Amino acid sequence: MGGVSVKGLTKVFAREEGAGIVALENVNFDIRDKEFICLVGPSGCGKTTLLRIIAGLERATSGEVRIDGKEITGPDPSRGMVFQEYSLFPWKTVVGNVAFGLEMRGVPKDRRLSIADEYIRLVGLEQFRDSYPYELSGGMRQRVAIARALANDPDVLLMDEPFGALDAQTRNRMQKELLALWEKTRKTIVFVTHSVDEAVYLSDRILVLTPRPGTVHEAVDVPWPRPRDRTSTEFATIRRHVLRLIEDGEEPGKV
Question: Boundaries of each ABC transporter domain copy (predicted)?
Fold first, then answer.
């Protein structure tokens, strides 16, 4: 199960001199099990900080995050994280990278290699099982990172601009591949992006954050079935609405 509940969450970064920096303030939202959520908002609004708090990599100053009623107090295999920078071990092969988390959890070698191979097949990299990261393209490296996160069978998959460093063509292909994986695994996904187009294409709902201190400006439903036509009137309508929310929030005196 992967239902996420964020209540009254505030994050203040302390400074040696003067008042601290309030990154997030009184953030509240709920995510249903198996839901695909995108977080968007102006640069510096706290999207990545919020994701890291859900992952247990940062501690909130106040408020709480719960998954299926259990409060998050630190990192846990029930939450998988995929970063923009791939974060692969260059000295390990594809199968070694995908199996790493299982190895750290003490899963026997035969079993962890079997699980790793299953997810390598799922992301279509069987022919590159024994390749090293430097031998792979950017899109292939990110597929390895996704396979590594999924191999631990997390309830929630957290993705921090995972396709931000890719060229447009590869990015569009990875979006389609991610949706195919989501349909197969039905994991709850929380996906940070700067691209409103990407958010509308991927998500069930888009959470629009305000400028710092970030809080939820509006939750926008994206009700149409997938795959979605980026050239359709419905797509353009939602895209314009989300862009307007972001732009309104950036204007002085508006939230």
Answer: 4-236
Q: What is the C-alpha R_g of the chain?
A: 19
CA torsion 75-76-80-84 (nearest 10°) is 10
Task: Give the right CATH number for 4-78+155-250 from 3.40.50.620, 3.40.50.2000, 3.40.190.10, 3.40.50.300.
Answer: 3.40.50.300
Nearest to 251 by CA among 20, 13, 42, 37: 42
**pLDDT, tens only, 208-219:** 999 999 999 999
Longest dimension (CA), the chain: 60
Q: What is the pLDDT of residues 130-159, one digit of tens each?
A: 999 999 998 999 999 999 999 999 999 999
Instruction: Read off the tokens for 140.
Output: 């292939």
Contact by Cβ (8 Å): 98, 118: no
Q: Where are the domains of the chain?
A: 4-78+155-250, 87-153
SS3 category, 243: helix
**3-state DSSP call for residue 78?**
coil
